[in-house]
Amino acid sequence: MYLNNTNIKLPEDPDTVVWKYLDLSKFLDLLLSNKLFMSRSDKFEDQYEGTFSEPTFEEIKKLAIDNPEFLNYYKTHREKVAVSSWHINEYESFAMWQIFTQNSEGLAIQSTIGRLQKAVNPEKNFDQYIGEVNYIDYKKEYIPFDDSFFPFLFKRKSFQYEREVRIITDTSQSNLKLNEGLKINVDINELIEKIYIHPKSENWYKKLIIELVERLGFGLEIEKSDLESDILI
């Protein structure tokens, strides 16, 4: 397990704030299992996940002429890699609420880069990394393939608004078959600095979240959304 790798870029300040926006069922699953769900990389909506830019693909094709398995490895590798996405932002994001939650319900976990690094417990059978995503022009720019995890740290420029940091788990050294993804062990109290409840949610929903967290025995700090502030006029 390698949560730190000199080839991977991360914000230098460990107090850099990151967010994860999720619905109540995924939040409950996190608290009940003490495990963080990670999606299989080829199950994301973006079909380019884990693939290469055009300049890199052309180079790989040349290398694969004498070794067809070389190209096939990269295609099947996507089925062995799982990703947990986090959003870098000093403040909560109205756009992220819109994209990742529905019906004015959902939560946002506020954490930091340092907390992510401490919260993820080492997995003996998997390689794990935390890295910041690079946003590039897939028609012109090159994605290095010195390490097999690099394709999962690059996305198209049209996704720049995500400002994404990723926890990446590579299970290719094990016999584990990923279906939708996998769950990894985490320290909940380290992972979660604060919880924000959807700014447009009703009072009964807010009370439900507070009661659920208390009943499950977590002393987590629950904040009112900054987007819910009273209008001053």
List keywords for this structure.
233 residues, 27% helix, alpha+beta, DUF2971 domain-containing protein, nine-stranded mixed beta sheet
Task: Explain this structure.
This protein has 7 helices and 11 strands. Strands 1, 2, 3, 4, 5, 8, 9, 10 and 11 form a 9-stranded mixed sheet that branches. A two-stranded parallel sheet has the order 6-7. It is 27% helix and 24% strand. With 233 residues, it is of the alpha+beta class. It has one domain. The N and C termini lie far apart (54 Å). This is DUF2971 domain-containing protein. It comes from Flavobacterium chungangense.
Q: Number of domains in the coordinates?
A: 1
What is the rounded Rg? 19 Å
* Strand element count: 11
Which residue ranges are poorly predicted, with pLDDT under 50 across at least 5 consecutive positions?
Answer: none
Gross geometry: globular
How much of the residues is beta strand, in percent? 15-25%
Spatial separation of the terminal alpha carbons: 54 Å
Mean pLDDT: 87
SSE order, one letter for each helix or strand: EHEHHEHEHEEEEEHEHE
| Largest sheet report | 9 strands, mixed
Helical amount:
25-40%
Secondary structural class: alpha+beta
What count of helical segments does DSSP give? Answer: 7
